[in-house]
Every structure is written in C-alpha cells, then in structure tokens.
Amino acid sequence: MSLRTTTSVDYVEDVSPGSGALPPRAWYASSDAASLSLNGSWRFRLSATADAEDDSFAAEGYDAGNWAEVRVPGHWVLQGHGSPIYTNHLYPFPVDPPHVPTENPTGDHLRVFDLPDEWPADGGAVLRFDGVESCARVWLNGTDIGEFKGSRLPHEFAVGHLLKPTGNVLAVRVHQWSAGSYLEDQDQWWLPGIFRDVTLLHRPAGSALDFFVHASYDHVSGNGTLRVDSDVDGRVTVPALDIDVATGESVTVSVQPWTAETPKLYDGVLATEGERIPLRIGFRTVVLEDGLIKANGKPLLFKGVNRHEWHPERGRALDLETMREDVLLMKRHNINAVRTSHYPPHPAFLDLCDEYGLWVIDECDLETHGFVEQAWRDNPVDDDRWTPALIDRASRMVERDKNHPSVVIWSLGNEAGTGRGLTAMAEWIRGRDGSRLIHYEGDINCRDTDMYSRMYAAHDEVEQIGRDLDGGTHRRRGLPFILCEYGHAMGNGPGGIADYQRIFEAYDRLQGGFIWEWIDHGLKDARFGFAYGGDFGEELHDGNFVCDGLIFPDRKPSPGLVEFKKVIEPVRIEGDGSDGTVRVTNAYDFADLSDLAFEWSYQVDGKTVEAGSLSVPALAPGESAEVKLPTPPSGDGRGAETQWTVRALLAEDTAWGRKDHEVAWAQLPVSPRALPSVVASDRPSASERLIYVGPASFDVRTGALKTIGRLNVTDLRLDVWRAPTDNDEGASWQDDIRWASLWRKYGLHRMQHRLDGVELSDDALTVRTRVAPAAWEVGLRTVYRWTSDGTRLKLTVSVAPEGDWTVPLPRLGIRFGLAQADQVKWFGGGPGEAYPDTKSASMLGLWHASVDELQTPYVRPQENGARADVRWAELGGLRIEGDPEFWFSARRWTNEQLDAAQHLTDLTPTDTVWVNLDHGQQGIGSQSCGPGALPQYQLRAAPAEFSFVFSDLRD
Ligand code: IPT
C-alpha cells in the first residue's frame, strides 16, 4: 500500500462536507451484530499547523512510542495540550471564508486494535465517529478512507475490507480549524478533539442499513399507526400490541400515546435477515393546526431549557450518567422541553428524552453569528457554494435522530442570519420528514418555519404578540409563538420569569419558551475554582458570558432553577386561607393528577403544628376542584402568624423521582403577625465617651453604635451598594440603560456619610446624616433614631432623597459587622435566596443555615444570598426583628470585597460577619442578555422609613 509522501491539506479549507463517508442513516445499536468500542487511551501528537507532519504516522509499523496519550472521547486542550478559547460570537480567527489560519492546532491520534475473537469473519464493518471537532482525516491500516467536517454529527466509513484480526492501525488527524469552523460559531468554548465515541460496527450480510419508524397517534380514535420503512426488508414485531408486520406495511391498533408527561414506549424489534434491532416506539402526532403546535390533538406549552453539552472537566465529552443526571434534574424541576442548543446532542441523550419524557427541539450544528460584524456579508448560509455542506448537516441530524418520539421539532440552527442555504435545508427536511415541524429563530418572516420564534423579547412585546397585535407577514401572523431563548440565567437570576409565565398562560398563541441556558460552562480549575473566558490568556474572549446556566458547572441547582421549578409547576394551588377551601388546578397538558398525593400542614409562627393528607380528585388536564381544608388547629395564642401550606407530592416512586418528591406547593396566609413593639421608656444617658440607650452604647461624638449588650457591633450605617450582578451589568452591546455602570458613575459604591447632628432627648438618641456621593447633588437625608424599653433596642431609619435621582438604588438598608457569627436562624422566606422578581420559590418558614451556606457560589462573584420577607433573624447572639419584614444577608466579606472579586477563590473570609438588613432590593431582571427588571421591581429612591428591634440573646 502506498502512502503519499506529501500531505495535501486542501480539504481543511474546502467548503465541502468531506469525502469517503457513507450516507447518513439512523443511529441504533443492534442486539446481535458485534461492535467494538474504540474509546480509551490513544497515542497523540500535537502540531502547530495542519501540514507540519506528513501522513507516515498512519502507516502500519509506525512507532508512536514516544507520543503522548489522550483519552477518547475527549478534547486535547483539556488534557494538557494547548488551551481552550471562549468567544461568544466573534470568530477567533480572521474572517475570510473558507480560509483558516496557518496556525491550526492539529492533533494526530493513533490507536492499534485487535478484533475480538468472536468477531465474525464474514460481513462488512463500519467505523463510526459520533463527534470530532472540527475536521478529521482518517486512515485505517495505511489506507486513507476519507475526511469530514460537521463536529457534532456522526460520520461512518465502510472498512470491512481493510480489517485484520490483529494489529489494526487507526489513524485520525484532527484539525482545530477548518472551513467547517465558519459554520460552528456557537457561543461556547472552542474545544478540538475526538469528543464523542468511536465505534467499529460489524455489519452482517442482510443487516439493516437505514430505517424510519413512523408511529402516529389519532387522538380521536385512540389508535396508533405504525409503519417501519427499511432499506432492507424485514419484519417488525411489537409483542405488547400483537404486531407482527413486514417492513413498509402499516398497522393500526389501539395504543397509549407517547407524550413528555406520559412517555409510553412500546418495545419492538426490527428483524432483517442479518440482524435484530431493538425499537422503542412512541406513538404521537405533532401538527400545526389552528395556528398552534399540537401533539395528539392538544396545544403544547413548552416549559423548556436550552441545553448545551457540558462537563466541567471533560467539556463536551459526556458520559451516559451525566446525560441521565441532566434529564433527571430537568424532570425533577418540572421542565418539559429541551432545545438542544446549538447542535444535535450525543444520541444517548435523546434515548433518555424518549424514556423519561421531554419534548425536544433538535437543532442542527449550524451557527455563523460572527458574520454579524460585517453586516452578514459573505455569510455561508447565503452562498450556494456552502449549500451542500448545510444540507449534509441537516440530513445527518434528521437521519440520525428521526426515530425518536421525543423529537417534535427540527431546528435549522442558531444565529446564522438568513439566506438560501437555510431554505434549502428546510426544503430537504420537509421532503424527508413531513411529520415534524421546523424552527429557526432568525427567520423573522417565517418563510421556512412553522412557528414564530424569538429570543429575549421583553414581556410587553410578548404580550402584544399574544394579543395578535404584532406586525409581520400574513404568514407569520397565523403562526404560534415561542421564545426559543429567554430568562438569561447568567449569575444571579433570571428575574421576571414568573411574569413571563403569566403571559404565556394568558394567550393561546404563546406556547412557552426555553430558558437560556441549562448549565454554566465553567471549567474546573485549581487557580479559580471554575475558569471562564480570559482565564487561559485568550486573545479575544467574552469573559463569564459562558456561565449563564440554571445549574452550576458541577450540576448543583442554582436558585434560578428552584425559581423556574416553582414558576412552571404543573399544579396550581390557590386560595386565601381563611375560607377553609383551596382550589387545585391541573396544569398538565396530558396527565391527570393520579400520580400525586396532596398534603396540608398548618404553621404557627413558622412552626408546623399539624399536618395531614388532603384528598384531591384525579383531575383531568385543565380541570379544577375546590377542596375543603380541615378545621384549623385552635388556640394559637395572640399575635401569632398562621398559614396553611399545601403540597403536591409524588404518590409513588416514578422513573425520575422518589415518592414524596415535591412537585408543587402553595402557602395560604390565615392571620398576620403582630409587629414588634418597643415602648420607648428608657431614658438615654451619656458619659464622657459613650451614650447609653437601653442595652446599647454609642460613641458620644459620632453617635455610632458600639455594643448591644455584650456584643460588639462595627460600622452600622445606611448601605445602598450591592456587588453588581451580571444582570445589573447588562450586556456590552446594549446601549440602553445598564444599571451597574450608571451606579458607578453616580458613585453609589462610594457614598460619603456626613454627620449632621447627634441629639439626645428624653426617650431617644437621634443621629442625623446625609449620605451622598462625591461630585453629585443627589443625596439621602438619613436619620437614625434609637430607643429602648430597657432590654430591647429599636432603630428607626428614615430616608429622604434629595436632588434628581434618575437611577434606582441597588439596595436600601443598613449594614454592620458582627464578630464570631456562624449559625443563622430566621423566620421568613427560604430556604434559598430571593430577590423582588425571583421570589416565587421563597417559602415562609423557620430556617437555619450557616453563614457559609447562605452564600450562592456564582462563578463570577456578585450579589447573592438575600433571604426575603424575614420577620426575625438570629445570629452571633443577636436577635433582629423587623418592622416591616426585611431582606437578610450575611457574609464573611464586605459587599466591596464581593464586588472586587473575579473568581470564587478571590473571596477570603474575615473574622467579621457583615450583615445587611434591607428595606428594599432592586429587582434582578435578565439584562445580561435581555430586558432589565420590570418597573414594579425597581427600587426607586423615595422617602422610606423602617425599623429593627435588636436584642442580645445571651442576656
Ligand atoms: C444568543 C445565542 O443564541 C446564544 O447562543 C447565547 O449566546 C445567548 O444569546 C447569550 O448567552 S444570541 C443573542 C442574544 C444576540
């Protein structure tokens, strides 16, 4: 066999999808044909350019003994060879399609393998690559078998004629950059490598090649119709349905349909002469009808997320357990849909979606976002030379994934502008699979799509669309609307998702949305905890914009996920608590409530005094019932705050959750609490250095609080600053209001506290101040009034804004330092953090946590950890009661230190615990890539008065 001595690398910059590969087909695992995984340790050599080395390494007998080793599936940049690069939409190379830089990291991969003893001698074999970024050339036993592009798509090669029983040499040359990179400009890390499985599949004579399972459901008759079209004739059996038919033949029987809520799969077999293939068949029909996306006759409401594949150590090389963890976490958080942003996922993920039940928008591996910087000039999707590559991508996705009942919509790609290539893709898809709908967000007139899709549209615009008051083409106006991305979950947030949900539920045309996004793409890194863009010295990068998920990189749920779970809960529990009934509504689209058990409990001052089960009928979707609550426990004493809590729990273990897993809940207040009252009976006194009010001492000159009982208190004063969240910062491209920069401009992080007077009267110490930033006329006249009944200390803060305040305040409250605080108990909202527009999941109760546990570890440190509606809190021996309720936070660093930190590792605990008691907090919104906090959640500077009552618990 002769190898070329000079290596041509022209294919790297060729717009064609490749050569030598087999036509795309369904992805399946045969039950009897042999297969051999070639995952594992491979020899590896990195070169700086595509042509630095010739192809002699592919020859049999080549000695790679001194090469490094890498794990396949994997990315070499995460295994010590080179570094990852993060850019959102900017290409990290000059835009001159289809050319790529000479500096083109190229990884030669080598693996020698034997066939297992039982590998059949007859038949053929196929070598399958499930994902390689971005371009690969493959040799088997010295023969060049082809090259390909299309990173997150499978490519197969017929190799039977090349195999030997032992000593097979598989050589794969992978180039980081190729013409294909222009089509893969998704907002994520650039991670070259063989990052999905490599498998050798035996293909017996008479084996199935490609097949298409058509399984529809007629909701009127309750019948399912099955037809399996197969390239190779065979029989299809489904024992549970008594089906035994030839391929190509239709059969109609009574079935239970598949839905995301009721994912009924029937096990079947496709048997050809050469092999048996297990089928998991879900009967369902998806149509566009009456301007709505309907499944099995009913309109859907997507409660979805955008999911990138991510693992903090392995990047996009995901193992099955990680994929399952994603699906289970989604199901446990009431999520019913996934958009596979922005490429087809590992095929096993779709098996899990079929099995556990999730509606899937399967998105093609296509994004050319960086062309926006040149007004989309030369965009490959509007250039016929690239169309074969686009159709190749569409067909590889559709052929691979067409047998999944969970996939209901094909998406052409993301952020690729507009052009003929997209139309060609849509036409190809419709010709091949008329049973699913087509999505593409960039198609604003819906020329090629079946739904009007947008990203990050603000609430009022979505509402206008719901009311059919948007403009657009005649075609678009007849189509349903989805938000393929909304609720940008970067850092603290997203805020305002409950408000979106209310709008979605109010208008039929609005069929829900998909939060951006599922997981933070932080990379585990000893230097930083989790690394983000710029941490690897990238020339161009987009910082922590890559950390914008509902779960942290280690898959721990963030408060945003807990909030989303509550907002989209499939059971609505409503009532006012005092009339003895509760209204329960089934908000599922398909399932009745028979899987759920309901419980009531009754709390007195946050403490559960009685609980029991509540009998709720197995309501059908959309139905409601008024359910009687028991007689409330009596004798709760005067002034106690009382409420019902009603919860819907899984009645039994299910595939995705344990018995008693909480699905939905609500609290119905009965009687309000009595506000703390302190009679100002103690007469303040003064010594040479100190003033005394009840249990407290103050500096005689400044009026500053020094002690409460035996507790030292440091630096108590008004505080308006918070470490800006990513949503406060806003996105760099937004030239409308971005609060954090305005706050900094107006100096809210450097407020000066001018002392105007320290006054003693018969019953109070009054300290008058003006809190204002240098250079500006705006200020807050702030009066601290201290009184006591002898044992307890009351502070009333009055704030009067002066000047022309054009910005909201980040927060309004007081802060102070306490020594030696660790455990915190509180009666208020919990257990997790909440802000004005992220507090749906904040449950009123008695909670406790350590100061460390109160922190939310956002990958880039920022304001976090506030607890809402706090009636009282205790920490470090101090009890604080609020009038009215307050926002509580405590941390081992100041807000200024939190603000300065770039990574979690920058936060070093001090001995002092800094406590913030806030009367108000600015809402969170979603402005890191969307609308800011709605007006009703903004903290406008306005006259305010609020009080706290302090006591030393050790006295
Ligand atoms: C949109 C992208 O589709 C997505 O990939 C991600 O970048 C997201 O924004 C922000 O995190 S693009 C857009 C708002 C211009």
UniProtKB/TrEMBL annotation:
Residues 692-951 form the Beta galactosidase small chain/ domain. The keyword RNA-binding does not apply. It catalyses: Hydrolysis of terminal non-reducing beta-D-galactose residues in beta-D-galactosides. The keyword Hydrolase applies. Keywords: Glycosidase, Hydrolase. GO terms for molecular function: beta-galactosidase activity; carbohydrate binding. One of its GO terms (cellular component) is beta-galactosidase complex. Its EC number is 3.2.1.23. One of its GO terms (biological process) is lactose catabolic process. Belongs to the glycosyl hydrolase 2 family. This is Beta-galactosidase. It comes from Streptomyces flaveus. The lineage of its organism: Bacteria, Bacillati, Actinomycetota, Actinomycetes, Kitasatosporales.
